[in-house]
Amino acid sequence: MDLDKVLLEGENLLQPWTVSTSRPEENRSDVVVARENLHAAVEAIKDAGWGYLTAITGLDCPAPAVAEGEPAPEGNLELLYHFCNGLAVVTLRVSLPYGDPTLPSVCDLLPYATLYERELIELFGVRIQNTPDTSRLVLPDDWPDGIYPLRKAFTGFAAPATEEKE
Amino acid sequence: MPTQEQNQKFIVPIGPQHPALKEPGHFEFTVDGEIVTAASVRLGYVHRGIEKGTEDRTWTQNVYLLERICGICSHVHVTAYVVAVEQLAKVQAPPRAEAIRTIVAELERIHSHMLWLGVAAHEGGFDSLFMYSWRDRETVMDILETISGNRVHYSANILGGVKFDIDDQKRDFILKGLEFLEERTNHYMKIVTTDETFLGRTRNIGTMTKEQAIELGAVGPTARASGVTIDIRDSAPYSAYKTFPVNVITDETGDLLARFVVRIKELLESYRLIREILDHMPEGELAARIPRRIPAGETIHRVEAPRGELFYYVKSGGGDKPERIKVRTPSLCNWSSVINFAVGHKLADMPMILAGIDPCFSCNDRLIKIRRANQSQVWTWEDLRLHGIEYYR
Amino acid sequence: MDMAVKTPSSPMQKVMDGLRAWARINSPWVIHYNSGSCNGCDIEILATLTPRYDLERFGVKLQGSPRHADVLIATGPVTRQSRERLLRIYEQMPDPKFVVAVGSCGLSGGVFHGCYNIVGSIDEVLPVSAYIPGCPPRPEAIIQGVVALLQSLKPQ
Fold first, then answer.
1. Which residues of C touch A136 (CB under 8 A)?
2. Domain ranges of chain B
3. Number of domains making up chain C
4. Do C39 and B23 touch (CB under 8 A)?
5. Domain enclosing residue C42, as ranges
6. Handedness of CA C50, C52, C57, C60 (dihedral sign)
C-alpha cells in the first residue's frame, strides 16, 4: 500500500538526524531527533515538499517519584512536530530537560509556526530561540510569570483568581 | 505619551465588542487615509483553558466538555475526539454509527456554511441576504433538532458509537428539508455571482494566491478558494467518508467571491452526500462497548471541520482520564493568512475580509491570543473607565 | 435588582416617568457580549433576531454601542481576560441598565467550571436581572426571558 511508501519516504528524508524510529500505528511514524538537529530535519521535510506542519504538541513528562535518598531524576518536556501528508503522519519528537528547555525556532522555514511556538513558550515554558514574536499570546494580561498551566505541576490556583470583587 | 513614530500613523481599533463581530476579538488596523497598511489581531477573550480541563475529567465527561469548545462545529470536535479514543481502545464503531456521525457532520456543515453566508452578507451591508439565509437555515436546525433533540449541541456521539438512530420517518424529514435547501442554495449561488453591488464588494477583494495559501498555512474553504486541494475528508478519509467519497471543491481565483462560491458549492455537495448515505444506510448496531479505562498509548485523529482541518492528539496513561489532549483548530491557521492579505485594502472592506475566513473565536481562543504591544497610554484602563462613566452619566 | 426610579412628586415628573417607562418597555435596545462562551448561545441569540423568531416585534433592537443600550445580553462564563471588558461595557451603558445572562455556563460556569482561566459566572461580576438557562437555550426561551424582564419593568 502506498501509505507505507509515503511514510518510508518521510523516514528516509529524516535519516541523517534520526535517533530512533517507531511505527505506533499504521499511518504514523515517530522519529526521535536531537534538538540541535530539529531545524535541519524540518528543513529537509520542507525542501522535499513532504506534507505540511499540522501542529506542535507539547507534553510534560515529570520525573517518576523515586525512593528517598536517591537523587531525583530531572523531568522532561517533549515537543511533537506533526507533519501530515494525506493519511500519513510523521511526528518529530524532541525532548528537552526542565533545566534547559531551549530550542531553535522553525519560523524562518514555516512562517505559520509562530503561533504554535508562542503557545509553547507560554503554556509549557519552552524557550524558543529566534522566534519572531514572543509577546504574551495565550494567557490574560494579569497572569503571573513563571506559571505554565499545561505543566503537570500546575493544578490551578488555590485562592480565587480575582481578589477584588465589585 | 505617544512616541514620535506612533504619531506618524493612525491606528483604528475594532473590538472586542463590535457590532460587526458577534464574538470578541480585537483588531488594530494601521491606516494611511482609507488604505490599511498593517493589521494585527488580538484574541484571547474567550480563552477558557479547556486542554488542561480535559485532564481532570473522565473520558466520558470530556465528550461533553469538548463538544462545547465551539457551538457551531461542536459535532466535529467530538467526532475527532471519540474516534481517537476508539483508536486507542481498539474499538471499531459499527458502520451504522459511522454513517449517522457523517450525516450529522454534513448537516452541521450546512448549518455552519449558511450561518456564515448570512453573517458575511451582513458584513457587506447586504442584510436581506442575511435574513433570508438565516430563515432558510432554520430548516436545517429543525432537521438537527428532530434527529437529535437539540438545536446546537447535538450530543450525537458517545464513545463507541452514536446515541440515536435515523429511522425512515426522520429520513423522509431530512430529504424533504434538503429539497427545499437545495432550491434556496441555487438561488443564493445566482445572487452571489450575479448581483452587481455584491460583486463590487467581493470580486478581487482579499485575494490570496495558491502560493500564499500554502506559505501561510491556510486550511479549509479559505485554502480551497485559492486552489489548494486539501480536504481531510478526501485526503485522509475517516468514518463513512471511506465508503462515500466527497468531491473536493476548489476555485482558482482566491478572492472573497471565490470563498463564497466554494462554500455554496460545498453546501450542494453536502446535500448530495447526505442523500447518498441515506440511500445506502448500513444496518446494524448503534454503538460498540468501550472500556471505562482506555489503554495507554497516543493517537492522532484529523477531521474536516466546516472551517478546515481539525487536529486532535490524544494521549492516555491507561487510566480513566486522559493524560493529554491537544486540539489544533482550523481558525487558528487562517488568522495568519487574513492578517497578510488584509494589507492594501480599504478599511471598509475589513469586516468582509475578516468574515471571509469564517473566523471562530471560541475555537481558537480555547488557546490563542495574539497581541501587539503598541498600546501607549498615559491613563490606566481604570482611569479611562472611570472617566468614561462620568462623561456619559 | 432595584427597578424603582427616584420619583419626585411633581405631576410633570410623573408624566415624564410614565413616558420613559413606556418607551423603555416598548423599545429596549440590547447589546450582546460573549465573555467566554462556546458560541452556541450567541448563534441562538442571533437566530432570535432573524425572521423565524423575530425578537424585533417586541421592539427589541440589537445595538452596536454600549452607550445606546438598555439591556446587556451576556453569554458564557467570564474568563480572566474578558472580565475587565465585560465590566467596561456595563459601565459604559447609561442608567438604568439591565443584564440578561444566557446559557448554563453564564449562570454557573457550567461545563467549564474549574478551568483555570474562568473567573466564574456572570453574576459574580455584574448584577444580573434575568437568567435564561439551557445549553444553549432555545430562541423561544431567550424571547421569554427578555419579555419577562420587560414585564417586570412595568410600573405597578
1. none
2. 4-46+335-392, 50-332
3. 1
4. yes
5. 26-153
6. negative
